[in-house]
Design goal:
One of its GO terms (molecular function) is nucleotidyltransferase activity. The protein has one domain: Spore Coat Polysaccharide Biosynthesis Protein SpsA, Chain A, CATH 3.90.550. It has 171 residues and is an alpha/beta fold. The chain is 25% helix and 30% strand. It has 4 helices and 11 strands. A hairpin with a 2-residue loop joins strand 2 and strand 3.
């Protein structure tokens, strides 16, 4: 399937257990909308095709949004591979469902994409974020890009959530 516009396709991975907080953490309120609603809204500005991979753990998300749904098993690696095969459109931006970010960071990351690599991973302060660009269905050559953005939060704990609320409170 060829790319239909200059916008990137996006896959949101939302099939996990959420064992550190809870499986509905992406529905936590973030200034009037849920974390995942905010993420989808921001991604719509840069993507013309948004897919979301869910599992039995997150079926509560099914049909909550006007997106392309992929039913996974809850195994991240297997679900990612299944989604890559089903979508078959590259480059593909892959993101977790439980992150809070500035869209400018994602735009900058996309602009740094290097098609010489199969996978480009975004790190913040040398920590993996779960945000990647897949340039093809291959997994041999990868590049980690380290970025620094105080507005990026992977919400795994209540403390992460509170830090994000505090950071964005006045923005």
């Amino acid at each position: 399937m060829g790319q239909s516009s200059n916008k990137i396709a996006c896959l949101i991975m939302a099939g996990g257990l959420g064992s550190r907080l809870n499986k509905k953490k992406m529905l936590l309120d973030f200034f009037g909308s849920s974390i995942i609603e905010r993420e989808i809204s921001l991604i719509r500005s840069i993507s013309d095709s948004i897919y979301i991979c869910i599992s039995k753990n997150t079926e509560f998300l099914l049909n909550l949004f006007d997106l392309n749904y992929i039913q996974g098993s809850g195994d991240y690696s297997g679900d990612l591979l299944l989604s890559l095969k089903r979508i078959d459109r590259f480059p593909l931006l892959v993101m977790p469902a439980d992150i809070i970010f500035n869209i400018g960071l994602i735009v900058k990351f996309i602009s740094m994409n290097n098609n010489n690599y199969d996978i480009i991973n975004m790190k913040i302060k040398n920590n993996f974020t779960g945000v990647s660009i897949f340039n093809r269905m291959a997994f041999e050559k990868y590049l980690d890009i380290n970025m620094d953005d105080p507005g990026f939060f992977n919400v795994n704990t209540m403390d992460d959530y509170k830090k994000a609320l505090e950071y964005y409170k006045y923005l």
